[in-house]
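FORM 12-B: Structure-to-Sequence Request
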């Protein structure tokens, strides 16, 4: 299988990204208006939270918990940890409410908090992994190899293998590349919002995403035993 023949199998975000606009039947101005209206509602709720309105906070959580949990899950590859970090995100939102000022889009502010807590968790995991590796007995069999002798191992479909390889490849990306991919492709954040969350320029964010997609394609090509130039 060549890389070209993988086009129908690879997730869309591994392929070169065209400039994306609103669907043809939705005028761009209308799409922008919906997004702006949604953010204005979140800001309005947050200003009520600032005054101690618990109901407004509950509504804010309802509106954004799916995006926050989804982002954490894809960054950490663990649903339980994702829920824990998402809970910390909204605790941070509540505690920060008295100091909240409308200086940016609410989603940008929220994803900045999410980014900080996720990065803290990935670094904590990295330190814990280093300690664990130092303590591991060299005579113990490696724990990260799959036992292909188990019954039924040969019946794993290629699609499942690709998905597993992709998950592993995303997990191996540098954290900024990983969260940029998640925010762009899974949460559909505009480039400008990603720039604000990562505190990077637009060309830098586009370059970051390009490098991430290139690296993911390389990982999958290597998984399939293909060379890539």
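FORM 12-B RESPONSE
SEQUENCE OUT:
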């Amino acid at each position: 299988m060549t890389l070209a023949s993988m086009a129908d199998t690879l997730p869309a975000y591994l392929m070169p990204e065209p400039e994306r606009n609103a669907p043809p039947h939705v005028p761009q101005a209308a799409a922008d208006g919906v997004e702006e209206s949604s953010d204005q509602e979140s800001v309005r709720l947050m200003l009520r939270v600032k005054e101690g309105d618990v109901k407004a906070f509950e509504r804010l959580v309802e509106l954004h918990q799916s995006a926050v949990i989804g982002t954490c899950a894809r960054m950490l590859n663990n649903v339980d940890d994702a829920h824990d970090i998402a809970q910390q995100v909204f605790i941070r939102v509540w505690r920060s409410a008295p100091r909240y000022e409308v200086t940016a889009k609410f989603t940008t502010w929220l994803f900045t908090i999410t980014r900080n807590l996720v990065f803290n968790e990935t670094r904590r995991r990295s330190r814990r992994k280093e300690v664990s590796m130092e303590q591991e007995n060299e005579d113990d069999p490696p724990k990260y190899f799959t036992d292909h002798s188990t019954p039924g191992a040969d019946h794993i479909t290629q699609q499942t293998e690709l998905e597993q390889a992709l998950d592993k490849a995303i997990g191996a990306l540098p954290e900024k590349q990983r969260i940029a991919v998640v925010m762009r492709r899974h949460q559909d954040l505009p480039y400008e919002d990603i720039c604000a969350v990562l505190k990077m320029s637009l060309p830098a964010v586009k370059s970051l995403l390009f490098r991430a997609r290139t690296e993911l394609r390389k990982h999958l090509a290597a998984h399939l035993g293909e060379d890539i130039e």
